[in-house]
Design a protein that fits this description.
Layout (H helix, E strand, L loop, with lengths): L1 E2 L4 E5 L13 E3 L2 E4 L7 H9 L4 E5 L3 H12 L1 H7 L1 H7 L8 H19 L6 H17 L16 H17 L6 H12 L5 H4 L1 H4 L7 H7 L2 H11 L4 H9 L20 H16 L10 H10 L7 H11 L7 E4 L4 E6 L9 E6 L11 E3 L8 E6 L5
Antiparallel strand pairs: 1-2, 2-5, 3-4, 3-5, 6-7, 6-10, 7-8, 8-9
Length: 388
C-alpha cells in the first residue's frame, strides 16, 4: 500500500482478498474499475491480472482501505521491511558507496542537470572530481552492495540513475582496465551518459504519456548531446562511446545511429545492459512487481538481439541474480536476506534467515551458503525492488 492522491491510496492487486465488500468505487488511472456494492471474487482478481492491472486506487476513507491497512500491519513482509535497517546493521550489510557520499554525489549530478537546463556550461573538472571520488571509494569497498533496499528515496530518479549506471559498469569494468585513470575516465562516461537529457527538457523527460514524434525525435538526441559534452571534456573514445551508444542494440534497432554489432565495443555493450538493468530495478513503489531476478531474466531474454551474451554473463556474475540485501523466500517457507553472491552459482547466494516459516521474526540467523545446500533453493523474491 502506498500513498496515492489526497483522496485515494494505491493498492497492489496482490493485497486484495476475495470476500471483501467494495464499499466505494475502485479506480484505475482515475477511471472506475469496480463499482461500490460488489464483493471481490478470485475470478475478478484473476481478470485484473490478465489485463495487466497491478495497482488500484481505493478511497482513503473507505472500509476497504481500513481492511487493507489492518492487513498490511500484520503482514510479515511489512514487519520485515520495517526492520530492514536493523537487519542490514546486524549482518554488516553496507553500500559500497556510503549513503551520505551517494546523497552528495546525487546532489552534484542534479546541480549539473540544472545548470545545463538553464543553458549554462558545467565545470567538467568538478564533474570529474565527483566521479573520481566515487571510483576511489568504490575501489576499496567493491565487495559491498551497489544498491540496497532504500525505502525512503523514491525521487530524483535521473540523477541517481546516472550514478547507479556508473557503479554497475564499474563493477564489471574494473576487470577490463589497466589503470585507475582509465577506470575513472570510463566511469566518467558512464555517469554522464544521460546528461544530454538536460537539453531535451524536463517536460519531455518526465512526460507520463506517450511522446509525440517531434518529442521522440528530441529524446533520441540525448546520447549524441551527452557524447558531445564528453568530447569537449576530452574523455577517451571508449568513455564517449558509452554515452553515445547506450541505447544502441546488437541487431541495429537501437538509437541514435542504429549501429550494428560490429560497431559496438564491449564498453558500449555493457552500458546498454547496465542502463536497462537500473531502469528495470528502480521502481517508485517497493511493492511493485519488477524484482532483480526478473530484471536479470529480461536481460538474458534480450541476449543476442539486444545484448551481448558474454558481457551479460560477466555482468550477472558480478551483480548476482539475487543481489546483496535482497529478501528472498526459501523452499522451507523461511525468508532470508542475501549476504553475498556466489559468482559461480548465481541462483545460490549466501543468505541468513530473518523470518521463520510461521511468520515469526528471527533475530540472528546463521549464515547459509546455498551453493553447498542442495536441499534448499530460492522460490521467490520477497522484497528486492530498489526505489533508489
Ligand atoms: Fe539514455
Ligand atoms: Fe540511462
Amino acid at each position: 500500500m502506498t500513498d496515492g492522491d489526497s483522496k485515494h491510496i494505491k493498492v497492489s492487486i496482490d493485497q486484495l482478498h476475495p470476500g471483501w465488500l467494495v464499499d466505494r468505487d475502485i479506480m484505475v488511472d482515475h477511471n472506475v474499475l469496480v463499482t461500490a456494492g460488489v464483493t471481490i471474487t478470485p475470478k475478478m482478481i484473476e481478470s485484473f491480472r490478465r489485463r495487466g492491472i497491478e495497482e488500484l486506487e481505493v478511497a482513503r476513507d473507505s472500509e476497504l482501505a481500513e481492511a487493507l491497512r489492518a492487513k498490511d500491519a500484520e503482514d510479515p513482509v511489512t514487519t520485515l521491511l520495517a526492520r530492514t535497517g536493523e537487519i542490514y546493521a546486524q549482518h554488516n550489510l553496507e553500500l559500497a558507496i556510503p549513503p551520505e557520499v551517494l546523497e552528495d554525489a546525487t546532489d552534484q549530478v542534479e546541480g549539473f542537470f540544472t545548470e545545463l537546463e538553464m543553458g549554462q556550461e558545467i565545470d567538467m573538472d568538478v564533474a570529474r572530481g565527483v566521479v573520481n571520488n566515487l571510483v576511489g571509494i568504490f575501489s576499496s569497498r567493491a565487495n559491498l552492495a551497489v544498491k540496497l533496499l532504500d525505502l525512503d528515496s523514491f525521487d530524483r530518479y535521473t540523477y541517481r540513475h546516472s550514478i547507479n549506471v556508473g557503479l554497475l559498469m564499474m563493477l564489471v569494468m574494473q576487470d577490463w582496465v589497466d589503470s585507475q585513470q582509465e577506470l575513472e575516465d570510463l566511469v566518467f562516461g558512464a555517469v554522464l551518459h544521460d546528461m544530454g537529457k538536460a537539453k531535451v527538457g524536463a517536460d519531455i523527460i518526465n512526460k507520463p504519456g506517450k511522446l509525440t514524434d517531434a518529442e521522440w525525435e528530441l529524446m533520441r538526441m540525448h546520447p549524441i548531446w551527452s557524447a558531445e559534452m564528453l568530447t569537449e571534456a576530452e574523455a577517451s573514445p571508449n568513455a564517449i562511446g558509452i554515452a553515445l551508444n547506450h541505447h544502441e542494440r546488437l541487431d541495429g534497432k537501437g538509437y541514435p545511429e542504429g549501429l550494428g554489432a560490429d560497431e559496438l565495443n564491449r564498453f558500449a555493450r555493457l552500458s546498454a545492459i547496465c542502463d536497462v538493468y537500473d531502469a528495470l530495478t528502480t521502481k517508485r513503489s517497493y511493492k511493485a512487481k519488477m524484482d532483480f531476478a526478473k530484471a536479470i531474466d529480461i536481460i538474458l531474454q534480450g541476449c543476442g538481439a539486444h545484448f551481448d551474451p558474454e558481457v551479460a554473463h560477466e555482468f550477472i556474475r558480478r551483480v548476482g541474480r539475487y543481489p546483496v540485501g535482497t529478501f528472498i523466500k526459501l523452499s522451507t517457507g523461511e525468508i532470508a536476506v542475501v549476504l553475498r553472491t556466489n559468482e559461480r552459482a548465481i541462483n545460490r547466494p549466501v543468505v541468513s534467515r530473518v523470518v521463520a516459516a510461521d511468520g515469526r521474526q528471527i533475530e540472528t540467523g546463521e549464515e547459509l551458503n546455498l551453493a553447498i545446500r542442495p536441499d534448499l533453493y530460492i522460490t521467490q523474491v520477497v522484497a528486492g525492488v530498489q526505489p533508489t
